Amino acid sequence: MLTKLLHKFAAHPWVYDRIQTLAGNKKVLECLSYGLLPLNPRVVVDIGGGTGTVRSLLAPDCRYICLDLEMPKLEGFRSNVAGGLAILGDATSMPIRDGCADMVICKSVTHHLTDSQLDRALDESRRILRPGGHMVLFDAVWNRKRLAGLALWKMDRGSYPRSIEELRRKFAVRFEIAHWKKMSVYHEYVFGIGVRS
């Protein structure tokens, strides 16, 4: 009961953004910016985009689409990002046409998805990407040796942390891996970029 109440409170845009800041989001965004800048996408779909913090890493003339399941976060996105398109929707069944995106970003989402949901979300991402488009994956991964990470996993709503190897296997089935590395803040993270053939 208390956990549900805390998670509802954390969905409020202002609270959500502060939690992300405390969890090291500034460093995460820094790392992402180095990978995204050279790709210069024209149309980007950010699945689980929350309040749209990734938008600041993209060119001003990029068409940015923020897809999320929680309306409060999308309302926060709309108030912060002029000209951004907010879609209330599910990554496993995106209301977006085939081959329209240059890039799909999946940041801090995979640990919220069951195996079958993750498979569908990756398949959907591949579907909406144009050939040669980029799939960007960034998420915390399971590492028993990181005590700070273990403590954070206990508080996180995500119930499906995975190892780097497990995520790489699922990713490589659908995309040609162009970049794959790990980094650490409190959690250990994986940062992958794949190309749709």
Distance between the termini: 46 Å
**Total domains, how many?**
1
CATH topology: the name is Rossmann fold
Oligomer kind: single chain
Q: Structural class of the helices, strands and pairings? A: alpha/beta
In DSSP terms (H or I, runs of 4 or more residues), the helix count works out at 7
Total E-strand runs: 7
- Based on CA inertia axes, which overall geometry fits? globular
CATH architecture: 3-Layer(aba) Sandwich
Descriptive account of the structure:
This protein is α/β, with parallel strands linked by helices. The protein has a single domain, classed as Vaccinia Virus protein VP39 (Rossmann fold, 3-Layer(aba) Sandwich). The chain has helices at 2-10, 13-22, 25-36, 71-80, 115-128, 147-155, 164-174, and strands at residues 43-47, 63-68, 85-88, 101-107, 129-141, 176-184, 188-195. A 7-stranded mixed beta sheet has the order 3-2-1-4-5-7-6, sandwiched between helices. Helix 4 links the parallel strand 2 (63-68) and strand 3. It is globular. The relative contact order is 0.15.
Q: What is the topological layout?
A:
Elements: H1 2-10, H2 13-22, H3 25-36, E1 43-47, E2 63-68, H4 71-80, E3 85-88, E4 101-107, H5 115-128, E5 129-141, H6 147-155, H7 164-174, E6 176-184, E7 188-195
Parallel strand pairs: 1-2, 1-4, 2-3, 4-5
Antiparallel strand pairs: 5-7, 6-7
